[in-house]
Amino acid sequence: MKQPNKREPLSRERILGAALDIVDREGLEAISMRRLGQALGVEAMSLYNHVPNKAAILDGLFETVLAEVPSAKRAGTWQVALRERAQALRKALRTHPNTLPLFATRAAVTPGAIAHVEAVLDTLRAAGFSPDEALSALQVLMAFVVGHSLSSYAPQPDDAQSHPAYQQLSEKDFPRVHEIARVLDSHDVEKEFELGLEAMMTGLEATQARRKPARK
Fold it and tell me: What is the distance between the alpha carbons of residues 66 and 117, in angstroms, rounded to a whole number?
């Protein structure tokens, strides 16, 4: 006689995986304990044995997306390490654009998420940045990656989108705007991201270089 299939037991990882699937398909606003319970085929109350509330789910989603960013490599320079982590975070955010508001509004809270913060800070401190400089570098790097990803990939409902009519402006009054309007369709936002990242790395290198003479 065929044995019935056993249901996979609930766990924090399984709940967060289901939550990310929902967010990828339907957006952050779709997340609720009831919706998660339905997706997992369980009563919503049973989720509380693994995640205490919705805030914990959102913090877990933050961690789950960051888990797609590879661990820092010890080989190479600090510039290479930071650049690779920024590019990997960009890729993860591009893969899960509906989670972008989390990264724009929440801090790393769970140990799994904080481990990524620790890795970046350790890279910067080993490169000679002071604790305050390392914090600033981390913050501006995150702000650039998340902010540019928001502007490039955050989904918007159709009734919230705007479409500037640059061509209708006076070319005499706005000659440069007309120039960029002609290249917008072919503009590569990934090359734009790399330009900004390179500029930021140049600034961080200058900050580190100013400190070197004072260090023994």
Answer: 10
